[in-house]
Structure formats: C-alpha cells, structure tokens
Amino acid sequence: MEKTLPPAGKLWLVGAGPGDPDLLTLRAARLLESADIVVHDGLVGEGVLALIPPHVERISVAKQRSRHTMKQDLINELLVRETRAGKQVVRLKGGDPFIFGRGGEELDAAREAGVVCEVVPGITAAAGCAAQAGLPLTHREDASAVSFVAGQCKDLTDQDWSGLAGHGRTLVIYMGLATATAIADKLIADGVSPGLPVAVVERGTTADARVMRSLLTDLGDLVAREKVQSPALIIVGKVAARADALDCLGTPGVAAQIRDFT
Ligand code: SAH
C-alpha cells in the first residue's frame, strides 16, 4: 500500500512594513492570500490586516488589556505546531522581522524543530518614518553612518552608545518614548551637543502620522508636551533638521538654533 506523506508545512516570517498597506512587499501580499493561518502582532496596521482573506485563520498575539502579550516561547510553540500540522503559516510582524522584531528567535525555534522557514523582509520603521518626514537618514553632507538602537532597555546607563550620535552620524531610537528624557540626558552626558536636532515620528506612514522636530535638550519635554503615543520613532542627528516637520520647540530661541542647522 502506498504510504501517504504528511502535508509539507512551511513557516514564513513576514515583514508587514511600518503601517501603510501600500508598503507591503508583493511577496508579503501574495503570502497573505495563500496562507492557511496568519499569526500577527499588534504593530501590524489595520490596512494590512484587511488584506487577509476571511477564510484564512487569524491569530493575534498582540498585547490586550485583558491579558499580557503571549510569551515568546508560546508563540514559538504555536508556530512550530501549526507548521508541523502541514499548514502554510505566515508570522506577520510590523516593519522588518529582524529589526527588533524577535524574528531571530522565531527562526531559531523553527531551525531547532526542523521546520522549513523562509524570511520575507519588510520596510523597517526607521526607513518608513524617515521617508514620511522627508528626512534622509544618510546624507553626503550630514551623515555617513546610521545606527538603530532600542531605547526600551531596563538599564539605559549600562548601554554603551558612545560614538553612535553626533557629528556625521544619525541615531534612530526604537521604543524610546518612555525613556526619552533619560536618552537625551545620557547622550548629552556622553558629549553629544544639546543643540543637535531631533525628529519624532508618531504612527509613521499612516494617514494620522505626526512629525515633530526639536533639539536634543528638549526631547523629553517634547514627548510629554505633545503627548506622543506609541508607536513612535526618535531620530537624532543633523539630518533631523531636514525633516518636513512641525517645529515643537519648548524653549524660546531654539527655533533660531534649529535653523542654524539647515
Ligand atoms: N520590527 C519593527 C520594530 C518593532 S519594535 C520594525 O522593523 O519597524 C516597535 C517599535 O518600532 C515601536 O515602539 C516604534 O519605536 C517603532 N515603530 C514601528 N512602527 C512605527 C511607526 N509606524 N511609526 C513610528 N514608529 C514605529
């Protein structure tokens, strides 16, 4: 008698981009159509979720008021289990799966379990938010290096950011709203000019995005004054002066300073 092979499942770690569904890759859009199940997090925009056909099973592992975010090992187990069951599993993540997305951990889990996995890149928030703000992250005159850092770390003072911000460099901070004041203090203590321009982009690439501009010394106050909401990105460096943004300067006189940078 002929043996029936189990159906071949596959896991796809897919970047959903920064919010605007038009910024999905063609491959991501195709996979949403052909998936058996989509497992997504809270950062994935509504417009992107709307592209998932109704017959495709959808599981959210986003933070909800009633419960905490699903633990990473439970997510890994879910992905492996569903793929082993022979399904085409799309793990849909905001931005790019490998930029602060824990995609690396999910790929490790798939490899360990011997599950076939492919990664589909997405536009990361830094690229999307910079584009929205008309702010070139690198510029021949202003910045020849750019760094992405996570601002959410428990003990910021233990982080070595020396050399990441300042002359000729752009620093992009993900998840930095809660620690914005501490970040500015830390950079200034490390010798970065308090007068360096910063841009804050809230809900970048979406219809209700806000782009704000100020100086490093004002960063914490700006976030509080403008009641900036997550998701938001902070960009520190001379290029921030080029942002097409609302100037949100708390201190009189700094408007002139920011103009000096442009
Ligand atoms: N993998 C994602 C990042 C996940 S970390 C990526 O590549 O973009 C989550 C952080 O990303 C948020 O706290 C915020 O700092 C940033 N972020 C994601 N989408 C954003 C958006 N549309 N506008 C501003 N910041 C965003």
Helices and strands in order:
Layout: E1 10-15, H1 26-34, E2 37-40, H2 46-49, E3 57-60, H3 72-84, E4 88-93, H4 103-113, E5 117-120, H5 125-133, E6 145-150, E7 169-174, H6 180-189, E8 197-202, E9 210-215, H7 219-225, E10 232-236, E11 246-247, H8 254-261
Helix pairs in contact: 3-4, 6-7
The structure holds S-adenosyl-L-homocysteine.
Structural description of this entry:
With 262 residues, the chain is of the alpha/beta class. Helix content is 27%, strand content 21%. It has helices at residues 26-34, 46-49, 72-84, 103-113, 125-133, 180-189, 219-225, 254-261, and strands spanning 10-15, 37-40, 57-60, 88-93, 117-120, 145-150, 169-174, 197-202, 210-215, 232-236, 246-247. It has a 6-stranded mixed β-sheet, with helices on both faces. A 5-stranded parallel β-sheet has the order 3-2-4-1-5, with helices on both faces. The longest helix has 13 residues, at 72-84. It binds S-adenosyl-L-homocysteine (SAH). S-adenosyl-L-homocysteine is lined by residues 18-19, 43, 93-96, 99-101, 124-125, 129, 174-175, 201, 203-205, 230-233.
Briefly say what this structure is.
The chain is α/β, with parallel strands linked by helices.
